[in-house]
Amino acid sequence: MNNLIFIHKETGEIYTCFFDYQFHSHQNDVDILHPRELLFYENLHEKRKKTFLSGRYLIKDLLQGVVPTKPNLIEIRKGIFDQPVIYHPKYYDWECSLSHTSSNITAIIFPKELVIGIDLEGNQEEMALKTKGQITFQEKMLCISNGIELFELRLWSAKEALSKCIKTGLTVPFQLLEINEISKRNGYLEILFKNFPQYKVLSFLIQDECLSFCIPVQLSIDKKIALLLNSAILK
User: Fold this and answer.
1) Could you identify which of 73, 96, 158, 222 might form a hypothetical disulfide with 201, taking C-beta atoms 3.0 to 4.6 angstroms apart as the criterion?
2) Would you kindly state where each structural domain of the chain is located, as residue ranges?
C-alpha cells in the first residue's frame, strides 16, 4: 500500500489517496468476500474468478488504511457502467478505481471530493492492432514529434482512464476523447484532452505496462511519489 499525495495548485489543499500495484496473487482468499460477492464469484469462470478476487482483495486492503474493518463486511458492487462502488457505512466518503492486465492489478481509493480514474494496459503489439483507425493523425504526429515510445499503449490507456472519470467507459466515440497536448515531466507524461480540458492524465511506464491516472487538471502529484512510480519501487 502506498500513500498517493495530490495537491490543489490554487488552494494548496492536500489530498491523501491510497494506491497499490501488484501481481494477481490472492486466488485462495475467498474469505475476504462479502456474502453477495461470494455468490457472484461462485458463478464466474476460472479466469474471471482470479481478477475478481484480486480486485476485491486489493480495494479492501487499501480501505484498511482509512479505518480497519473485517473485509467480508465490505461489499464492492458493480455500478451501472461496471465501475466498482464501495458499500460500507465507514467508507461513505471514499470512492475507488480499479484496473488490471493478465499479470497485474492496480487500484486507488480516494476522498469523495475528488474524481480519479486509473487504467493499466500491457501488450503493445495487441494494442497497435486495437487502436488501428482509432488514433487521429494529429495524435500520432504529437507522439512522434515528442519522441514518445509505445504511444498506442499510452494513448489508449489515457483515454480509458478518462472514460472512468466521466463514467461512460469506452462507450462514447473514441474521437470525443481526442488528446491535444502531451508534455514530458520528470519520469512521466502529462496528457491533456481537446474536449475535456478539466482533466489530465499522468502516464507512467512500469516495465512493459502503462499505468495512467486521470485527475482534475487543478491537481499536481507530489514529486517524490512521481519518482517512486516511475522507478516502479512499489512496496
Assistant:
1) 158
2) 1-114, 119-212+229-235
Per residue in 166-215, pLDDT tens?
Answer: 988 778 888 899 999 999 988 899 999 999 999 999 999 988 899 999 99
Please give the grid coordinates belonging to residue 153: 499503449
Give tens-digit pLDDT for 5-51: 999 999 999 999 999 988 767 667 899 999 999 999 999 998 889 89
CATH 3.90.470.20 for the 119-212+229-235 domain, yes or no: yes
The string of DSSP codes covering 129-176 is: HHTTTTS-HHHHHHHHHTT-TTHHHHHHHHHHHHHHHTT--TTS-GGG
163: amino acid identity, one letter: S
Topology of domain 1-114 in CATH is: Ribosomal Protein L22; Chain A (3.90.470)
pTM of the entire structure?
0.92
